[in-house]
Design brief:
The protein is of the alpha/beta class. The protein contains four helices and five strands. Strands 3-2-1-4-5 form a five-stranded mixed β-sheet.
Length: about 130
């Protein structure tokens, strides 16, 4: 019931960068890491550099209200994900969002979602 008041944040992981969309406010931000966090084999090879970059990116799109509800996060890795993600890669994506203190985190594997797909909660239907 309260989910309609929550912000839905769509995070796409690319090589050394995060593309973030706040679907409630339609605010978008791309944050390129000053310290590369991707390696030749892993999209998130340096966990702490990725956390720092994600924190900066999230602060640019999430509302600053004191009374905001924890957001719903949809994570999608779009780099080095051919054949799907391993359990370890999914866990890394989940752990990256810990500092955001989300209400719920979904790891999406599939075609890129549109803002409307997220508002329609497509990420829940095709799990």
């Amino acid at each position: 019931m309260l989910n309609r008041y929550r912000e839905s944040i769509y995070i796409r992981v690319k090589k050394d960068q995060f593309h973030i969309l706040n679907c409630k406010t339609n605010c978008e931000h791309i944050e390129i890491s000053t310290t590369p966090f991707s390696t030749q084999r892993l999209a998130i090879g340096d966990f702490f550099a990725a956390i720092k970059t994600l924190s900066i990116a999230i602060s640019n799109v999430i509302s600053k209200s004191m009374f905001k509800l924890p957001p719903i996060i949809i994570m999608q890795q779009q780099y080095l994900c051919e054949g799907g993600l391993s359990g370890v890669e999914e866990r890394v994506l989940l752990e990256l969002t810990h500092n955001i203190r989300p209400y719920k985190v979904y790891v999406w594997q599939g075609a890129e979602l549109s803002r409307q797909d997220i508002l329609d909660q497509l990420y829940k239907k095709n799990r």
